[in-house]
Amino acid sequence: MGNHLAQKDANSPWGPYFLSLHAEQGKHFERAEWMIELALKKAPGLGILYYQKGRLLWLQGKYNQAVDAFEYAVKRKVHLVESHLFLGKIFLRDFELKLAKDHLEVVLKSAPRNKEALLSLSQVYSLKRD
Fold it and tell me: Does the structure show a pLDDT above 80 at 43?
């Protein structure tokens, strides 16, 4: 699919995006990162592309860069639930409880039954003794 999209419209970010997903699945992280960078050059304003970049960076152990990519993703697309959930869990892990709560509440506004967000938010409240 990625190849088809890349050939059909060379200016679209979707071909490289799907090729990045495919490379990630095969654990070819360098190629996956290269593809998502290509997609970002074509559409630098798409939050979902930064989310994919963050996932790739995280899988490679580049944690600070990954968090930066996730934060940029939510700035570009405020309701990108996956990025908010990831950031909420990271901030909870780091005991940044205010930031964790803010991100998890965004998730629950869009997906009120999201089990991961509910569990993580309950941990935030427990740690805050609230």
Answer: yes
Annotate 69-122 with DSSP letters as a single string. HHHHHHHHSTT-HHHHHHHHHHHHHTT-HHHHHHHHHHHHHH-TT-HHHHHHHH
d(CA 38, CA 31): 11
Left if phi > 0, otherwise alpha if psi is -120 to 50, otherwise beta: which for 77?
Answer: beta
**Least confident piece of the model among 2-6, 11-15, 52-56, 74-78:** 2-6
Residue 25 contacts by C-beta under 8 Å, 6 or more apart in sequence?
none
C-alpha span between 87 and 115 (Å, rounded): 15
Residues 4 and 9: their CA atoms lie apart, in Å, by: 9
